[in-house]
Amino acid sequence: MAPGRAALHLLFGLPLLPAALVVAGSSLLLLILAPEERRRFETVTALLLLVLVLGFAYQFVRAGAISALNLFLVGRLLMG
Question: Which site among 14, 52, 61, 74 is 20 to 30 Å from 25 CA-CA?
Answer without folding.
Answer: 61
